[in-house]
Amino acid sequence: MLLTGRSFRTSRLAELPSWGADAATLGGDLTHTEGTRSVRRTIHRLEDGSWHSAGDLCPWARVIVFGWQDLAILNGPPAARRNFIDGFAARLYPGHLPALLRYRQILARRNRLLHAPGGDSRLAPWDEQLATTGMELIDRRRRAVAALATELARVYPTLAGARRKVQIAYRTSLGEATEPAALLAALQARRAEEMRRGLTLVGPHRDDLAIDLDGSDVRAFGSRGEQRLLALALRLAEVMPVTEAAGTTPVLLLDDALSELDEVVRANVLRESQSAEQVFLTSPEPLAVAGATPWTVDSGEVRAA
Predict the structure, then answer these.
(1) How does residue 34 score in pLDDT terms, banded at 50, 70 and 90?
(2) For residue 142, which of 182, 179, 178, 170 has the smallest C-alpha distance?
(3) Pairwise CA distance, residues 288 & 305, whole Å
(4) Domains of the chain
(5) What is the rounded CA–CA span in Å between residue 177 and residue 140?
(6) CA distance 142 to 146
(7) pLDDT at 219
(8) Closest CA to 170 of 132, 133, 205, 143
(9) How many CB atoms lie within 10 A of CB 28?
(10) pLDDT value at residue 104
(11) C-alpha span between 14 and 44 (Å, rounded)
């Protein structure tokens, strides 16, 4: 929450303050090689009942989170994989998130025109904007996937303790095209079908991420254990590219990451996670980790173990 302005457990700000509270404040210090920076965030309820978050942003601070919801990357719908790669791309490229929000606004406006009588005559300027912004997103996603693939090929076998070949690839209906003209042509080619269905059928909002383990689609044929370990490996594979992009090592948050893993794999995960300078690891049972500071959470209170 301190680094990103949101919780990885929920997108609803109303669920974060204490019960019955109208506001909450969170503060902390971020330490960098050049010094320490204090960061503060507030959440408060507006008069209309909605909630607003405000606070400082730190351009060099990054955080990578693993939680049970990351299994959706492997066994969930395409939207879960698009959200994953967009989150990773946003940590690499500061302009990715603003472009994504702009694309979604353009897409929503275009879909409304597809529903409106005579809307097809007003689509041209929105098609051009969608094509330009859409190819910008696709380009960043492709570069992000390429960076992730290199690290993932190393991280997963390291965690599994066995020689396994894992591959990820960005899948788009535009093939290898890189120019907005390709997306614009694809939109025009599907115009009749889009008008009939009232939906934009081409663009980065329809793309997916292919993930193979030893030549098989892990989404369909991977065991639950393989999927869980691969989801964790995807997060750990983010550390090096994000470090290189931001110039600082990200904080790593691992929420119950060791569940359902055998002792050998657990040891491999702990060893690999040390590539991050600061790691928060939660577990339902006590852990003996060399050099770690243990804390316990009981009845909503955090205290030194």
Answers:
(1) confident
(2) 170
(3) 12
(4) 1-59 (no CATH), 62-304 (1.20.1050.90)
(5) 13
(6) 6
(7) 84
(8) 143
(9) 12
(10) 97
(11) 9
